[in-house]
Amino acid sequence: MSKANPRALPQSIDETLSLLTDGGYVADRALATVLFLSLSMKRPLFLEGEAGVGKTEIAKVLAAGLGRRLIRLQCYEGLDVSSAVYEWNYAAQMIEIRMAEAAGIHDRSEMESSVFSEKYLIRRPVLEALESGIGGAPVFLIDELDRADEAFEAYLLEVLSDYQVSVPELGTIRAAEPPIVVITTNRTREIHDALKRRCLYHWVDYPDAARELEILSRKVPDANRRLAREVVAFVQKLREIDLFKAPGVAETIDWATALTALGQEALEAGTVADTMGVLLKYQDDIARLDEGEGKRILEEVKGG
Which among 227, 282, 283 is positioned nearest to 255, based on CA atoms? Predict the structure, then answer.
């Protein structure tokens, strides 16, 4: 739960941009615009982009800035209703049944109404997101939806249509106020158009050099200014070549942090080679840089 005091929703694009900036997120105006519209129109925000570009962070900063609970549903293959929505506390229900039998209660309907009550309902993220707290409706982050199965995606579409969940033993549970929904996907598979149509869409791209440098100045303030410029220039050029996985902003931050911890004030060939595992996560990509690509990029950075 966010520790910030509850805050009213931003009333303009500029206020939305300020909310993100105050939370340490360096956003462009296009993102601030679609986020403002999502909040004002009460529509889910669908964020698509490569892994590591800061999609998840947007929801975190939004929740903190508004003083709302952040409820995160991390999607994965095989995600089902019992993991995502609700399930019953079967162990506690069995104890209740045994105690009722010991007390001489044998009325089936009475026993069912007792064990299938909210007391024994375990609320998972989807059901939690339908409950408003003191600060208002929560921010509901549905993270990496493309990892979930299409069957769950279809179920989620139904939930987002009316912001309600049907629990057969209890009835329909509706949200008094719809949550602020942020959906992210790394585009490992296409999400069905029916769900996308209910959302406002934004592609989160890698930042340009100026914005990435500003991100570093906020996230790694101890980094030498020259080092920060060279790190950003190196990463920007690295993204231009055909890698299995280009480094995201998170990797840029990690690399600058690591180099700063090593006392570096500028990029050096030896240190670049030794720390490449911080920036790249696949051996084939690292090997390509070791074969000369890294030296070429470093020379361009130093020459520029």
Answer: 227
The mean predicted confidence, pLDDT, of the chain is 91
Smallest CA-to-CA distance from 51 within 137, 128, 143, 130 is with 143
Ramachandran sector of residue 110 (left: φ over 0; alpha: ψ -120 to 50; beta: rest): alpha
User: What is the pTM assigned to this prediction?
Assistant: 0.87
pLDDT digits (tens, 9 = 90+) for 86-143: 998 888 888 888 887 777 766 677 667 778 888 889 999 999 999 987 778 999 999 9
